[in-house]
Amino acid sequence: MSIPTGLTKGTWTLDPSHSEVGFTVRHAGISKVRGNFDNVEAALEVADSLEKSRLSATAKTDSFNSNDANRDAHVKGADFFDAEKYPELKFVGTDVSGSGESYKITGDLTIKDTTKAVTFDTEFNGVAVDPFGATRAGFSGSTVINRKDFGLTWNAALETGGVLVGDKVTINLDVAFVAPSE
């Protein structure tokens, strides 16, 4: 399979100031909490073909941010990410399929000491040259995981029934990569 139009061979790097790696999870059965990771690094290695191209990403767990200091401290702590013991979440792509604007990127997601295969439904948003001469490529994507599959099992029962934190977590990506320098 051919690579998307506009992507040139080489290692494209994530532009963190124009990217967001976030999530949503059900809270108390009635609303959704959103958050993101403020410190993420990623590389998109574009090869001659889609099959040979690779994606890898790392998010620092202590950069978790949901705009609530108490919740952030809890999630960074031993009940969830245990950021001191497990400082990074990792994704290593193993397969890419699709064409045009729609792709599936499958890879190994590691949270704490558990690695599982996940597939991101991904949209290629195109390539553009910014006013400063940098060539950028944009992508959006999402996948749904069960947090318990990754050892994130803490919860609290509610008086009205149900639990405080849902099991299903949607990981959302809206990212920009910068082309390699020539």
What features would you describe in this structure?
- By secondary structure, this protein is mainly beta.
- Helices cover 4% and strands 55% of the residues.
- It has one helix spanning 69-76; strands at 10-14, 20-27, 31-37, 40-46, 54-60, 64-65, 88-99, 102-111, 114-129, 135-146, 165-178.
- The chain has an 8-stranded antiparallel β-barrel with strand order 1-4-5-7-8-9-10-11.
- The protein is elongated, with a radius of gyration of 17 Å.
**Largest β-sheet summary:** 8 strands, antiparallel, barrel
Encode the helix/strand succession as letters: EEEEEEHEEEEE
- From the spread of the alpha carbons, the general shape counts as elongated
Give the CATH H-level superfamily.
Lipid/polyisoprenoid-binding, YceI-like
Secondary-structure-derived class: mainly beta
Radius of gyration: 17 Å
Count of DSSP H/I helices: 1
CATH class label:
Mainly Beta
Average residue-wise pLDDT: 90
The number of strands is 11
Portion in helices: under 10%
Give the amount of beta strand, in percent. over 45%
CATH architecture label name: Beta Barrel
* Number of discrete domains: 1
Distance between the termini: 25 Å
- Strand arrangement within the widest β-sheet reads 1-4-5-7-8-9-10-11
Q: pLDDT under 50 segments (min length 5)?
A: none
**If you consult CATH, what is the topology?**
Lipocalin
